[in-house]
Amino acid sequence: MLLSASGCFAAAPPAATPVYGYTVVAKYPHSTNNYTEGFLYLNGMFYEGTGMEGRSGLQVLQPQTGNILQRHDMTGPLFGEGIVDWGPNILQWTWQTHLGYVLDRFSLRQLRTFTYTGEGWGMTHDKTSIITSDGSDTLRFRNPETFAETRHIVVRDAGHDIDQLNELEYINGEIWANVWHQDRIARISPKDGHVVSWVDLTGILPASQKRDAESVLNGIAYDAEKGRIFVTGKQWPTIFEIKVVPK
User: Fold this and answer.
1) Are residues 100 and 81 in contact, defined by beta-carbon separation less than 8 angstroms?
2) Nearest CA to 41 among 21, 19, 26?
């Protein structure tokens, strides 16, 4: 509490949300043809969901070379979005067509489809739920079998709603979220949606290496076994392994 000019006690202003920086640990090749919408690391490989009509699908990439080991292409006028692993499967959904796919993780064979309301953006999971974003300030927790919403949280930082939440990753009990057209990642409490801290990635890719204004930061992957964090962006030439450090 603080003593105001009138002699009354006033509440102290809230502490600023911590902001962290980064160091680059390693770099890996990434195709500038890939309009990254979903990104994860699993069993030594990168899994990448790509967008844009006629170019959407899922690719399994060898990290050191960037070579495509497996792929599943979407057909028709579909705009691919986020991906998530669940058990032996990979789920991928689409932006505005309300259609998602369940693929066998080992063969990428399509097992079934599912539907939903609203837009599809990012996906990740904790131990019990699939967590999704739709470009708003709301993250939805879904039943992995039915995809039905079980609860949701509104993401806020210092009393302000944070919208444009995009690609997601679950890291050490936090939801990490790209914010569309921003060079920073929100680290979010899955309990109540408050932003625990930010990771500022300003300057990680020089502007000269970005194809256009939509070549934005969008892609977070986590190697839980080794504690490694990877980030990339839409049509970026590089995947970065980073370490989060104090600014």
Assistant:
1) no
2) 26
Residue 143, CA distances (Å) to 99, 126, 156 in order: 16, 11, 24
Instruction: Please give the Cα distance from 13 to 68 (Å, whole number).
Output: 51
Rg of the chain over Cα atoms, rounded to whole angstroms, equals 19
Pair 133, 184: CB distance under 8 Å: no
Q: Which of 90, 88, 81 is nearest to 47 (CA)?
A: 90
Handedness of CA 136, 118, 36, 168 (dihedral sign): positive
37: closest CA among 21, 20, 23, 57? 57
| Structural domains of the chain, with CATH | 31-246 (2.130.10.10)
Phi–psi pair at 149, nearest 5 degrees: -70, 135
CA distance 169 to 179: 12
Structure confidence at residue 247 (pLDDT): 85
Cα–Cα distance between 81 and 38 in angstroms, integer?
A: 6
CA distances from 61 to 70, 149, 237 (A): 7, 31, 14
End-to-end CA distance of the chain: 28
Strand partners of residue 10? 2
Mean pLDDT per 10-residue interval, the chain, length 247 residues: 50 76 98 96 97 94 96 92 97 96 96 96 98 98 96 95 97 97 97 97 95 94 97 98 95
- Give bridge partners of residue 232 from the DSSP assignment: none
Phi, psi dihedrals of residue 208, rounded to the nearest 5°:
-65, -15
Query: What are the Cα distances from residue 145, in Å, to 13, 136, 150, 227?
Result: 44, 24, 12, 28
Q: How far is CA 237 from the centre of its chain?
A: 18
Q: Check if the beta carbon of residue 53 is closer than 8 Å to that of residue 97.
A: no
